[in-house]
């Protein structure tokens, strides 16, 4: 893509900076990407700060919350639900096990598979923390109304599904 030098009118822009020469659709997509990323980061910062008050990372809290609302799950299911790598889920479950919040259980029909389940201590913690955590998320999202949140959620779901259906650059397939 060709680039053009930005006009010198904005004193905050360095004279060596370049403005990409983009069509309107590409420029809008890039702007949306930046705005979504900043919004997600701001909300995540709020949620992570709340989880840390209980000695948990946001990923650890995500595992506990998933097990609380879904019951025991295969580690691979938990991994897909909270979007971490297979090595990451093992590390996180190990940490939660060491804290006495999660236990591993064997699978009756596949000896290679392992379930993660909340311990009574883990259940008690999530029951205590989840209501206030939900309020932290709601407060972080309160910059837009409930109807707008529903609309944005629907639009982002559509966007996510469309992006997931695309081949990756370089012709590789996405993990589904």
Tell me what the structure shows.
Helix 3 (75-82) crosses helix 4. With 176 residues, this protein is mainly alpha-helical. Strand 4 (102-106) and strand 5 (114-118) form a beta hairpin. It is built from six helices and five strands; from the N terminus they run E-E-H-H-E-H-H-E-E-H-H. Strands 3-5-4 form a three-stranded antiparallel β-sheet.
How would you write the strand order of the largest sheet? 3-5-4
- Computed CA radius of gyration, to the nearest angstrom: 21 Å
Q: Given the structure, what is the number of helices?
A: 6
Strand residues, percent: 5-15%
Please trace the helix and strand order, writing H or E for each element: EEHHEHHEEHH
Stretches with pLDDT under 50, minimum 5 residues: 1-8
Distance linking N and C termini: 31 Å
Look at the structure and give the mean pLDDT. Answer: 89
Shape verdict: globular
Proportion in helices:
55-70%
Largest sheet report? 3 strands, antiparallel
State the main characteristics.
three-stranded antiparallel beta sheet, two-stranded antiparallel ribbon, globular, mainly alpha, 5 strands, 176 residues, 10% strand, single chain, disordered N terminus
């Amino acid at each position: 893509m060709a680039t053009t030098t930005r006009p010198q009118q904005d004193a905050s822009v360095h004279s060596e900076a370049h403005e990409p020469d983009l069509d309107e659709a590409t420029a809008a997509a890039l702007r949306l990407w930046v705005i979504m990323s900043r919004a997600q980061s701001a909300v995540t910062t709020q949620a992570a700060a709340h989880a840390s008050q209980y000695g948990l990372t946001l990923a650890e809290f995500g595992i506990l919350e998933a097990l609380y609302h879904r019951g025991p799950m295969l580690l691979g299911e938990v991994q897909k639900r909270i979007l971490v790598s297979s090595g990451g889920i093992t590390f996180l479950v190990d940490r939660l096990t060491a804290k006495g919040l999660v236990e591993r259980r064997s699978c009756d029909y596949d000896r290679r598979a392992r379930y993660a389940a909340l311990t009574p201590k883990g259940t008690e913690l999530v029951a205590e923390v989840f209501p206030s955590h939900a309020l932290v998320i709601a407060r972080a999202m309160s910059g837009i109304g409930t109807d707008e949140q529903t609309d944005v959620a629907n639009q982002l779901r559509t966007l996510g599904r469309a992006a997931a259906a695309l081949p990756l650059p370089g012709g590789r397939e996405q993990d589904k």
